């Protein structure tokens, strides 16, 4: 695609690759899995290396790039297996909320620290009783003097253990439904009544500190309301979700390509019945099917990236990308695990971890069932 034809992007990819090879070797990532989170020091290192806020204007501490630069970094995170490092969440989801919807004062106050890695971000949408149905959230932020009192609980929050900058989806007017939803920023160092639950014990993504968060009468100043008016939260969320779903599809393409790479290498080396497993026609057909899905997915996602850059990516097309590509990722990774035989079930082999990690792609960012609802509305 034409958007990739830029020497600057190639240089960024090379720089990021060298950074991850140097600073995120397998033994360090294994330590993150054991600890259940990435240490904050790595975020500062990434900030110093210029990997955070690459699409944020230089006047706010960023690198002045655009969505293409974020995509290149997300691809490098996937290619190098930097598990737990939620760069796509930080760069592609949360910082754009501040840039697009924050006041000038908020952008100057928050973005430089987010770009340097001094602040690590999270967004608190889902609740124990409300996932994709954001209008059903029960967390409230009620006006109290020159600020708001936040009460409620959130769950499935990535970066939950280390984030100190959290965008909280809450109802400033509980009687107004979706029109009463607002986004408020909680800076945890100053938030009395804020508590973190333990990191959730998940099937995969062992190094990602997905957590429950609790807000017990947490007071934040009125200046922490994202934007300048209450009740804009649902509109802000709907404006940014297509990009979030697209970047999930981007990471799914990388996983498919990596699964094919490691599996092809494995079946060429593995012997069965006196020949390489690759030489069996069934193996070749299965890999051919996986390759076809990966190529189609990449071409479609690249086209969606072109649309995002042009400002024409709509909710339905982003939902199609998220639905089809993550479903295809699961099919490809599962087939690749099968071709590993018994070794595919052993965590020492990369395909086993890819298989476990891939399962959530069809759930977060809006479940794939919700994506079908969104697509159907456009018929």
Beta-strand percent range: 5-15%
If strands are numbered along the chain, what order do they take across the biggest sheet? 2-3-7-6
Bin the helical content.
40-55%
Which CATH class of the largest domain?
Mainly Alpha
Order of helices and strands: HHHHHHEEEEEEEHEEHHHH
Average pLDDT rating: 96
What oligomeric state is this? single chain
CATH topology of the largest domain: Butyryl-CoA Dehydrogenase, subunit A, domain 3
Radius of gyration: 21 Å
Number of strands: 9
Supply the CATH architecture of the largest domain.
Answer: Up-down Bundle
Give the domain tally: 3
Spatial shape: globular
Which sheet architecture does the biggest sheet show? Answer: 4 strands, antiparallel
Keywords:
379 residues, alpha+beta, Butyryl-Coa Dehydrogenase, subunit A, domain 1, Butyryl-CoA Dehydrogenase, subunit A, domain 3, 3-stranded mixed beta sheet, 11 helices, 9 strands, globular
């Amino acid at each position: 695609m034409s958007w990739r034809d830029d020497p600057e992007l190639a240089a960024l990819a090379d720089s990021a690759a060298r950074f991850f090879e140097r600073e995120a070797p397998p033994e360090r990532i294994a330590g993150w899995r054991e600890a259940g989170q990435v240490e904050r020091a790595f975020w500062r290192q990434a900030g110093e290396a210029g990997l955070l806020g690459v699409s944020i204007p230089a006047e706010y501490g960023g690198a002045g790039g655009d969505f293409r630069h974020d995509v290149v970094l997300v691809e490098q995170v996937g290619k190098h297996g930097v598990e737990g490092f939620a760069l796509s969440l930080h760069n592609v989801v949360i910082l754009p909320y501040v840039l697009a919807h924050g006041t000038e004062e908020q952008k100057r106050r928050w973005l430089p620290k987010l770009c340097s890695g001094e602040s690590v971000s999270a967004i608190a949408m889902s609740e124990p009783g409300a996932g994709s149905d954001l209008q059903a959230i029960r967390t409230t932020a009620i006006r109290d003097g020159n600020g708001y009192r936040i009460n409620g609980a959130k769950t499935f929050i990535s970066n939950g253990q280390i984030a100190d900058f959290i965008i909280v989806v809450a109802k400033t007017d509980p009687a107004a439904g979706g029109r009463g939803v607002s986004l408020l920023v909680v800076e945890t160092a100053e938030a009395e009544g804020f508590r973190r639950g333990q990191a959730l014990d998940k099937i995969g993504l062992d190094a990602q500190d997905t957590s429950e968060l609790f807000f017990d009468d947490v007071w934040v100043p009125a200046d922490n309301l994202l934007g300048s008016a209450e009740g804009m939260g649902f509109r802000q969320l709907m404006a940014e979700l297509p990009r979030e779903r697209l970047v999930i599809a981007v990471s799914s393409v990388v996983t498919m390509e990596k699964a094919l790479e490691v599996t092809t290498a494995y079946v060429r080396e593995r012997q069965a019945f006196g020949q390489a497993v690759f030489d069996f026609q069934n193996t070749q057909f299965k890999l051919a099917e996986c390759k076809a899905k990966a190529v189609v997915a990449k071409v479609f996602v690249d086209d969606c990236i072109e649309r995002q850059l042009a400002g024409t990516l709509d909710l339905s097309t982003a939902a199609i990308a998220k639905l089809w590509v993550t479903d295809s990722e699961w099919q490809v990774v599962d087939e690749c695990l099968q071709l590993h035989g018994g070794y595919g079930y052993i965590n020492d082999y990369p395909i086993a971890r890819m298989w476990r990690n891939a399962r959530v792609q069809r759930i977060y960012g809006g479940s794939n069932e919700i994506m079908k609802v969104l697509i159907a509305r456009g018929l």
